[in-house]
Amino acid sequence: MIWSSDVRSITSETGSGAILYDPRLLDAPPPSLFDPGELTTRGWLDGQADGRGTTWFFTYRGMAWVLRHYRRGGLVARLVNDLYLGLRPESSRPFREWRLLAELHQRGLPVPRPVAAAYWRCGCAYRGDLITTRLFSARPLADCLRLKPLSSKTWRQVGMTIRRFHNHGVYHADMNARNILIDGEGHVFLIDFDRCRIRPGSRWKGATVQRLLRSLRKIASTTPGLYDHEEGWRELLAGYACAENPGRNHAENDF
Fold first, then answer.
1. Burial track 175-205 (b if 16+ CB lie within 10 A, e otherwise)
2. Known catalytic residue at 174
3. Which of 9, 21, 123, 188 has its CA 20 to 30 A from that of 248?
């Protein structure tokens, strides 16, 4: 396999932190590029999507990008909504995710290309943001399922895509139906690589796929009769099983 090498990185220090960015996509980004209010004022904002936090879609110099602010989930979010401990930018969550996305993009895996990551110092803690390229016409798997049933081909493509990541040892910490995107041509992408990493072994792979199954069952329970998640699941596993694993003669299920 030939991997592309078109993602480069530069880290620039700011008065309040640091910004990691790809110089092939933009010059040193101003801090205002990470400010939704500023994006709105300048007329760059195209829209937004709400989840655990808000994601903003905007256009900058003719390029369509996505801005995500790092927010905590669970009970911790009630105390520190968007603060994380850490004094080193390179160890911060946005910088680590940027670096991982760059590596996955270079390997030819279907992920958004990383544009810039920001680390904003706040005492002994920090806040963070990430900008990536926008995947046009791509919808979360969860939204697709609420619109119409997926074809067997699409379900298999989802399984094959997950297997591609697993073949590269990519552990996704939050594999659910909102972090899998499908575009108008049936191409499948994975997003949100916060807390994800390359890891050895294979025991974790089955647990990752089972997490997705729980997500699909939850959607099915809230939209009864819309789709047969068990049939879709069988097709997904069939796609996962038939995806080629480099270095092996046969793909192996890990669950």
1. bbbbbbbbeeeeebbbbbbbebeeeeeeeeb
2. yes
3. 188
Q: Are 33 and 69 in contact (CB under 8 A)?
A: no
pTM: 0.90
Tokens of 128: 């963070």
Catalytic residue (choose from 82, 174, 194, 254): 174
What is the token pair recorded at 94? 């946005």
Percentage of residues of the chain with pLDDT beyond 90: 75
Torsional class of 25: left (φ above 0), alpha (ψ -120 to 50), beta (otherwise): alpha
Q: What is the pLDDT of residues 144-169, one digit of tens each?
A: 998 888 999 999 999 999 999 999 99
Query: Is the C-alpha dihedral spanning 131, 132, 137, 138 positive or negative?
Result: negative
Q: Which DSSP category does 236 fall into?
A: H
> What are the tens digits of pLDDT across the range 214-238?
999 999 888 877 677 789 999 999 9
Q: How far apart are CA 151 and CA 228, in angstroms?
A: 11
Q: Where do the domains of the chain lie, and which CATH numbers do they carry?
A: 10-133 (3.30.200), 139-242 (1.10.510.10)
